[in-house]
Amino acid sequence: MLRQRNRRNRLLVLIFLLVNTILMLTIVVSRKERSSAPNIISKTIILIRTSNRCQARLTYLLQSWLSSSLAQQSKIYLFTDRIKKYTDKRVLKSFKTIIETNCSETHGRFDLCCKTAHEFDFYYHISRANPDIEWMCRFDDDQYVNLENLYQLLPQFDSFSPYYIGRTSLKHRLKVRNHSHTFSFATYGAGVCFSRQLLARLRPYVSKTILPYNCIEQRLSDDAYVGFLTEVILNVTLTPLQELFHSHLEKLDMSFRQFSFAYLRQAITFGFAWDRYDLSWLPIIHQLVELVRKGEEQAAERLWLFLRNYEKEHPNQSVYKHDQTCLPPQTERH
To answer: Where is the Fringe-like glycosyltransferase domain (predicted)?
Structure first.
């Protein structure tokens, strides 16, 4: 009888110790989860590309995923062509750091590659004073970015390894002259993230005096040329995350209403094609994301179902629109 009691007591002690161990592990894990977000935020720079002719888009960014509080714009940088051409100077004051590239405002190959070269150059400049920066993620001004999801994704990858993360632009692989290898590339329209190891390897090829001219020589757009450098020259394969990164190039016969609420909740970026979805959707998507973040998932799901049904019942309101957020570019010669 005494032996059974002692055995029972030992068992209770073991159970007590096991429960305490599990509780301690839970506390440690939860603390790590809470601390990982601030750590990755401080180690990631976010670049947003815009143009003076698209300044109306900035208002939608500030109404949605980009905080209008300058204190919350740490490590977020706005890239534009020519500040003096902005007619709405007030909107510029809503951005903590603005980098002027002085590249042409057109959408030509040279001009886009000029802007891309400035983005890389800025990373190399800022990383000298901030060697702890692990990631550079760049986005366009017509995208919605779920920063919380992005900051949860990046720690899953080792920044000391070369990572090129985004959405594959084309179903087929590309090939350039004088090279036998084919390559794929991440469309800039969905957002792209580069690890610091990859950025270090890219450095000899992406300077402002080299990259734009090599884009022209290879007859590639800026994002395609970055894919060529990464996959062909550096032999680093794109990490495609098609379910998380979305661009305006996606066929919208698979429209927003095809996305389930769970799909919407986990996505990192959405692109907005002006002829089908204008940028007034950005604040709407942001409200859905905010409801989820606050734990009000039922309200968010009901709102999403309403929007999906509304779009289904009013299909003509989402097609053949004119982009009113960008003025036509003025062609410039080089």
So the answer is: 45-274
The answer to whether 52 touches 85, Cβ cutoff 8 Å, is: yes
Q: Which two tokens stand for residue 270?
A: 């959405």
- Of residues 154 and 330, the one with the higher pLDDT is 154
Model confidence, pTM: 0.84
Per-residue pLDDT reduced to its tens digit, 134-184 = 999 999 998 999 999 999 999 999 999 999 999 998 888 988 888 888 999
Strand 174-175 relative to strand 182-183, pairing: antiparallel
Q: What is the pLDDT of residues 270-290, one digit of tens each?
A: 887 655 567 787 888 899 899
Which amino acid is located at 159 in the chain? Answer: S
pLDDT of residue 318: 52
How far apart are the C-alpha atoms of 198 and 241, rounded to whole Å? 18
Q: Is 111 a catalytic residue?
A: no
- Joined together, the tokens standing for residue 245 give 């990164």
Give per-residue burial for 17-29: e unless 16+ CB within 10 Å, then b: eeeeeeeeeeeee
**What's the rounded Cα separation, in Å, for the pair 25 and 36?**
16
Question: Which residues lie closer than 8 Å to 80 by C-beta, 6 or more apart?
Answer: 49, 50, 51, 52, 86, 98, 99, 100, 101
Assigned domain for 117 exists: yes
Which member of 81, 111, 223, 278 is catalytic?
223
Share of the chain above pLDDT 70, in %: 79
How distant, in Å, are the alpha carbons of 175, 196, 198, 223, 232 from that of 185? Answer: 11, 18, 14, 7, 11
Higher pLDDT, 142 or 8: 142
**Residue 331 belongs to some domain of the structure:** yes
Residue 296 CB contacts under 8 Å (≥ 6 apart), including other chains: none
> Distance (Å, rounded) from C-alpha 282 to C-alpha 69?
18
Residue span of the structural domain in which 249 resides: 41-334
**Structural domains counted in the chain:** 1
